[in-house]
Design brief:
The chain is of the alpha+beta class. The protein folds into 2 domains: 62 residues, no CATH class; 154 residues, OmpA-like domain (60s Ribosomal Protein L30, Chain: A). Helix content is 43%, strand content 12%. It is built from 9 helices and 7 strands, in the order ααββααββαβαβαβαα. The strands form 2 sheets. The protein has a 5-stranded mixed sheet with strand order 3-4-7-5-6. The longest helix is centred in the first third of the chain and has 23 residues. It is elongated.
């Protein structure tokens, strides 16, 4: 019987991975080609489409370029005929005339509530277009170098609080001092003294029913004087607390910033003049 020949053993093919790798590279190349085609903008086709739409709707031709905005002329179209100058405007929720009428009414109500102290020269009510200031001399509020309210000040502050708590307006309470230095355990400087006096009034208003979320307590120390600190009478006038009833919370800030800018322009804008503005409490 003839002997069967053994089946020859085929050697393993080690290059089969190249087929899978080639397929992967091909698919990756196709993916990037599609992504590139999607990200590219055919400007010629864009202009044809834009011209067609413009003709259909009879509007001015548009440019695919971004809007160019300069300092003087602000170009909002690609043609000279459609150039316009856009000026920045300030938009307030109410007209200034409406604010002024509102402040006039508030000033009358406040003045009526504290009229006896106004007659004595201890309280001053000033109406502005966008806020009402109630300025109280510290002589009726605090003892010297102290932030605790005097008992004689409570009736006036209570009458003022009764008016304020019925209003929806925001209120700033400002503390001011003269330029005489102070340094003790409670108040290292006039900053702390002025801030503490303003906070005392805010706390009292809160106890009398004024919503604390509408109030702010601010200390200005001696840096916003209304009189010359060289005289005793001037220092007395500078020691005060001011309650400011605002028509709009940001209106006063805007007016003060514009005023300071105009003042700096009038003074020439030099660095020396700017220093004087800060020293005199203009900012």
């Amino acid at each position: 019987m003839a002997r069967r020949k053994p089946i020859p053993h085929e050697s393993e093919n080690t290059d089969r991975w190249m087929v899978s790798y080639a397929d992967f590279v091909t698919l990756l190349f196709a993916f990037f080609v599609v992504m590139y085609a999607m990200s590219s903008v055919n400007e010629g086709k864009y202009r044809v489409l834009a011209d067609t739409m413009n003709e259909a709707f009879k509007v001015a031709p548009k440019s695919p370029d971004p809007i160019q905005i300069g300092k003087e002329n602000k170009v909002i179209s690609g043609t000279e005929k459609t150039k316009k100058i856009i000026k920045p405007i300030k938009v307030l929720p109410k007209s200034q005339r409406t604010y002024e009428r509102e402040m006039q009414q508030i000033a009358k109500i406040v003045s009526k509530a504290v009229q006896p102290l106004i007659d004595q020269g201890l309280i001053k009510v000033t109406q502005h277009k966008l806020w009402v200031e109630v300025e109280m001399n510290s002589k009726i509020l605090f003892s010297s170098a102290d932030s605790e309210l005097e008992d004689e000040a409570l009736p006036a502050l209570k009458a003022l609080a009764e008016v304020i708590k019925k209003l929806p307006n925001s209120v700033d309470v400002e503390g001011h001092t003269d330029n005489v230095p102070i340094s003790n355990e409670l108040f290292p400087s006039n900053w702390e003294l002025s801030a503490s006096r303003a906070a005392s009034v805010v706390h009292l208003f809160t106890r009398y029913g004024v919503d604390p979320r509408r109030m702010s307590s601010i200390g200005y120390a001696e840096f916003r004087p209304v009189a010359n600190n060289a005289t005793a009478d001037g220092r007395l006038r500078n020691r005060r607390v001011k309650v400011v009833i605002l028509a709009d919370k940001n209106a006063r800030r805007i007016v003060e910033i514009d005023r300071d800018i105009d003042q700096a322009k009038r003074e020439g804008g030099s660095s020396s003049n700017s220093t004087n503005v800060n020293a005199e409490g203009g900012l």
